[in-house]
Amino acid sequence: MRVLVALGGNAMTGPDGSAAPKEQRHAIARAMEHIAELVAAGHDVVLTHGNGPQVGNVLVKNELAAHVVPPVPLDWCGAQTQGTIGFTILDTLEYALAERGVDRRCAALISRTLVDADDPGFTRPTKPIGRFLPHEQAQVLIEHGQTWEDRGEKGWRRVVASPEPLEVLETHTLLTLMDAGYVVVAAGGGGIPVIRTEDGRVRGVEAVIDKDLTAAVLARSIHADALVIATDVENAVIGWGTPDARALGHVTLDEMEGYAAQGHFASGSMGPKVEAALRFVRSGGKRSVITALDRITEAIESPGAVGTVIENV
After folding, report:
1. Residue pLDDT, tens place only, 233-277
2. 211 is known as an active-site residue
3. Looking at 189, 235, 273, 307, which residue is catalytic?
4. 189-220 b/e with 16+ CB inside 10 Å = b?
5. What is the pTM of this model?
6. Dmax (CA) of the chain
7. Residue of 46, 199, 273, 309 with fewest CB within 10 Å of its CB?
8. Interval 130-153: pLDDT, tens
9. Is 154 an annotated catalytic residue?
């Protein structure tokens, strides 16, 4: 089975959310144990991953050094973190596969995601990123062309566009590697956001793309049998925080659409994951799974026994 696994940010950082290099390496190594299990079970696997904490670290460096060197643009931040996370995944995944006697090659692609230059998000950026800063520090970055908003007592915070992903431009390369037997890491952090100009050129833009929505686009493009969104809980839940809370197991596309329309999934947590899962199945994908990272193999091998499984039946 061809499976695209989207790793959440919890798989990239320490238990306390620390993004220090040592904690990141340990967290990624633990995550790759579960990915190796899936590969060892005979599945063709493509990985995508989050990069929020890592980009956050780069943004802090931007802020601290803005009076000395120009800040690194967001598309560069995405490229840098894709490279760092990608090579760490390769090191740890290759080791985990070797421990299991699995002879599979691995590759990480620096991946661009095409967005529409006329996406409404560019007209009025609303996606908050990075730290809150006092006005005098934010002003230095505003002078470098960034958009910051006054958030009251907490201070000022940067806002950027979060456009819809249209296409992962490295899809053909990814498919070529898969056909050659590689386990591939691609579209980290939702992909480096790029637009196509009127003369046909591609260039990076200042934006943040939702990684799960890009995962849905990529899963469809590579004809994946399943999209697995790995998170820190075993199931999506309706009625969260109420006496009527209920974990969802096997659900139809129509049922999950109904739950989403009723507002059961918060926009800052489970909402984007559910939306990505729905988009994949809605576009013809066989199955989407939302579950904990340590249960992904079981969720694929025994559909409906573990996790939230969405199918169009």
Report:
1. 899 999 888 888 899 999 999 999 999 999 999 877 899 999 999
2. yes
3. 273
4. bbbbbbbbeeeeeeebbbbbbbbbbbbbbbbb
5. 0.91
6. 58
7. 199
8. 888 889 888 888 888 888 898 888
9. no
